[in-house]
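Internal tracking record. Fields below are filled automatically when a chain is submitted to the structure queue. Please do not edit lines marked as system-generated. If the sequence contains nonstandard residues, flag them in the REMARKS field before resubmitting.
Queue: standard
Priority: normal
Entity type: single polypeptide chain
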Amino acid sequence: MAFFNGSRINTNIGALNSYNALSKINSKMGTIQMRLASGKRVNSAADDPAGYTIGKKLEARSKSLSAALNNVGELKNILSIAEGGLQSINDLVVGIKEKVIQAGNGSYGSEELGAIVTQIQDSLNEIDDVISETSFNGTALLNAQFTSKVFQTGASGGDTMTISLSATIDSTDFGLNGIDSSDLQGSALSTTLSSLDSYINSVSSELQTVGSLVNRLDVKESTLMTSITNTEAAKSRIMDADLAKEQLEFTKLQILQQTATVQMAQANAQPQSILSLFG
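SYSTEM-GENERATED OUTPUT FOLLOWS
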């Protein structure tokens, strides 16, 4: 820094020094004011080039993880819809089995058996309705159409899950379509019950698959939420301003601004003392 000896007035070095100091203080105050206004320590790459780069990478990862979390939530919703349909079918099949066993009452005549057959056929028709109506975004979930569906469940390319709901749960596949009273008597009754047991096992197996997937997604959801929190914390440490610290620094700079202004005024007035030499 240049020094002013007081006898050379053509260039007021003292005033220039004070002006430079005041300019630096004003620049720092501007930076801190931006931090206090935005809440961010790094508002541009110039503030901290390395920190800015890392912060933006962390921000991108956090947003990617959030999008993956939404995918997991959507998949859980899809599986919940499928589970609801499967539970309805399971209840209907169990009810059909109850009616078939009821038909094994030797005291029943043709009218009673006919009434039971009508109930069974109505339940089978309802199962078909459940299968056709259980869908998501136009895709049926219970007729082997929802297969090999890939869901991005993480921030990296390999973080995916492939989901298939492909169990056979159509009543026609178990020989129950066109059931009549002859299927409820004698040795045919045992065959019908075996078909119903196979049907119940198939639906139960698919319910187990759905339940296992939901449990897995619960873990993945928790992991993603933890990752998002930790990523946001790391980004905050780099990018966010410590407002208490910034306010303390701003108060200090306000005082320095005032003293620098006073010193510049004094430096501007100091050359006037040379006039006493010409009195």
